[in-house]
């Protein structure tokens, strides 16, 4: 069985199929071999992994355990993709909290408007009452003046 070298880690033979040179596993298709070889090419994490972007997202990679930890709830995930999916939950929770706060602010604004309307109405009533009181006083003074005038005539 003759083997031809295809590229770095791949070889093929006349029987068909592809073999990984790294671990000697065999695959029927070139695509399957290519997908498998990605597992051998995983990038080793450097000390710089926890950069500002990852920290802003709440993601910390722990090299010793190879796990990705959520900084919000401290759950650990084997892959960054799983952690990313999990983080969506926290984003949704934050959005709901913001919506609740917004709703409370709107309700508070309605209450404050109603209170200010009540205060304005009370002031308006006071003003009307004071004007009525002034008219009543003026009428009373006119009646008294008329009575005095009649008595003097």
UniProtKB/TrEMBL annotation:
In this chain the C2H2-type domain maps to 18-45, 68-95
Q: Which GO terms describe its biological process?
A: response to chitin
Q: Which InterPro entries match?
A: Znf_C2H2_sf, Znf_C2H2_type
Localization per Swiss-Prot or TrEMBL: Nucleus
UniProt GO cellular component terms:
nucleus
What are this entry's molecular-function GO terms? Answer: zinc ion binding
Q: Which UniProt keywords apply?
A: Metal-binding, Nucleus, Repeat, Transcription, Transcription regulation, Zinc, Zinc-finger
Q: What is this protein called?
A: Transcription factor C2H2 family
